[in-house]
Backbone:
């Protein structure tokens, strides 16, 4: 296990994952797409992982799910109705895992609204539990493929920020096509940012960090806020896992781009 969070180790990926082209994702070219954005090929950036929810996570699902979980639907999200306020900055987080970072940032930035999208059910339960314990009123969750959420629920120029922290690195070359941050999906994400909005990614996998710099750097509507890698913004906490890696001498890279005005 080399990387952050609890991603599926590449060795756990079923052989069929190589050919699961009927799913959604981030992948390579496809001739057409929404609003002139090349549509990603239908390859998922995730596999459904085994892993049971704890009793506490299940309870959080039942008690807090109805208030804080939003259904996926192929129609624009009504943010004021979902969050109960009109003009708060809108931040999307893709793949929040168990929600440690999300909860920290949402507490710190209480004036911002956070939409967390995650497919892993125990993670959604864990996030709901944190929402109850902290408590947080500015987080909503959609349990669905983030690519479809971005495509179908988030209109152009509607977001103030996007967070993608430690996305699954898909170490093996034959799995690189599953990486979330590839040109078509980055173009789609950029189209959803308001002018001046930001895209913040972090990874502990150097070769994916290089890919992030390259792909975001090649997106004409984005500009780098730093010369290359960015210093870790204060709002992003160093998680327990990250700390352990840092102690072992592993690197972590932040990449922060802004939508051109
Ligand atoms: C390596 S984990 C990192 C979790 C968390 N961001 C952290 O820093 O601990 C990546 C997460 O992204 C989620 N994920 C991957 N592709 C996704 C997608 N297309 N839509 C929603 N979640 C996705 C996975 O389920 C996994 O929980």
Residues:
């Amino acid at each position: 296990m080399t990387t952050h969070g609890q991603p599926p180790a590449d060795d756990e990926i079923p052989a069929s994952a190589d050919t699961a082209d009927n799913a959604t994702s981030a992948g390579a070219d496809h001739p057409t797409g929404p609003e002139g954005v090349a549509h990603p090929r239908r390859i998922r950036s995730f596999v459904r992982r085994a892993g049971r929810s704890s009793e506490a996570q299940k309870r959080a699902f039942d008690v807090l799910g109805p208030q804080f979980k939003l259904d996926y639907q192929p129609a624009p999200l009504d943010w004021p109705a979902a969050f109960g306020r009109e003009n708060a900055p809108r931040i999307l987080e893709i793949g929040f895992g168990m929600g440690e970072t999300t909860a920290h940032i949402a507490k710190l930035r209480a004036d911002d609204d956070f939409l967390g999208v995650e497919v892993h059910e125990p993670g959604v339960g864990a996030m709901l539990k944190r929402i109850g314990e902290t408590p947080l009123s500015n987080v909503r969750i959609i349990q669905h493929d983030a690519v479809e959420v971005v495509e179908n629920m988030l209109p152009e120029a509607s977001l103030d920020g996007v967070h993608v922290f430690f996305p699954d690195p898909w170490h093996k070359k034959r799995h690189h096509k599953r990486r979330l941050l590839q040109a078509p999906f980055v173009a789609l994400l950029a189209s959803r940012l308001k002018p001046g909005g930001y895209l913040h990614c972090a990874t502990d996998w150097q070769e994916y960090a290089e890919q992030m710099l390259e792909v975001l750097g090649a997106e004409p509507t984005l500009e780098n806020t730093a010369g290359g890698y960015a210093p870790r913004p204060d709002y992003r906490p160093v998680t327990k896992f990250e700390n352990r890696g840092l102690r072992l001498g592993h690197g972590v890279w932040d990449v922060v781009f802004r939508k051109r005005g």
Notes: Confidence is low (pLDDT under 50) at residues 5-12, 14-25, 27-36. Residues 4-5, 7, 45-46, 94-97, 101, 117-120, 123, 145-147, 165-168, 180 surround S-adenosylmethionine (CB under 6 Å).
